[in-house]
Amino acid sequence: MTKILAAMAASFVFSASGMATAQVPLTSYVDANGFIDVQALTCAQLAGTFQEDADALSAWYSGWYNGLAKKHFLDLKKGKVVEHEVIVYCKANPGKKIIEAIAVVFKDERAKLGIEMK
Questions:
Q1: What burial class does residue 53 get, using C-beta atoms within 10 Å of its C-beta: 0-12 exposed, 13-18 middle, 19+ buried?
Q2: Alpha-carbon distance 73 to 63, whole Å?
Q3: Which residues, 6+ apart, have CB-to-CB distance to 57 below 8 Å?
Q4: Which terminus of the chain, N or C, has less C-beta within 10 A?
Q5: If you ran DSSP here, which 8-state letter would residue 117 be given?
Q6: What is the per-residue pLDDT across 59-104, written as a single tens digit (0 to 9) for each?
Q7: Is 64 left (phi over 0), alpha (psi -120 to 50) or beta?
Q8: Would you say 14 and 20 are in contact if contact means Cβ atoms under 8 Å apart?
Q9: With contact defined as beta carbons under 8 Å apart, do 85 and 108 qualify?
Q10: CB distance 82 to 109 below 8 Å
Q11: How deeply is 47 buried, as exposed, middle or buried, from its count of CB atoms within 10 A (0-12, 13-18, 19+)?
């Protein structure tokens, strides 16, 4: 997972034009109360953050989605696959929200497994 997260951070450092962009900490997106609206973050914002912040976001989103599904197990292999697919999607769609990228990837992964969406 660490290798995937490292690849994610490295791949997000470059914009669509191939130019390096300045990295900013997640604290740049904190509101007046100290919170980040994770439903509003874009793929581009994820791309422009630091490795440790990308790691924290990845862990948070994973916990959020697993909590919604009432799952308490981690499938490390599938998690790596999904994370990689989110990276690929975000690189191609920097203006999309991260949660939109995750939804697309989850739908695609379920379709590959023949699992119907409820």
A1: buried
A2: 10
A3: 26, 38, 41, 46, 49, 98
A4: C
A5: P
A6: 788 888 889 989 888 887 887 787 778 888 888 999 999 999 999 9
A7: alpha
A8: yes
A9: yes
A10: yes
A11: buried
Task: Name the amino acid, one letter, at 6.
Answer: A
Tell me what pLDDT residue 18 has: 44
Q: What is the DSSP string of 80-93?
A: HHHHHHHHHHHHH-
Q: Which amino acid is at 118?
A: K
- Residue 92 burial (CB count, 10 A): 11
SS3 call for 97: strand
- For the entire predicted model, the pTM comes to 0.70
Q: Of the candidates 42, 51, 50, which has an alpha carbon nearest to the alpha carbon of residue 89? A: 42
> Could you give the maximum distance between any two Cα atoms of the chain, in Å?
44
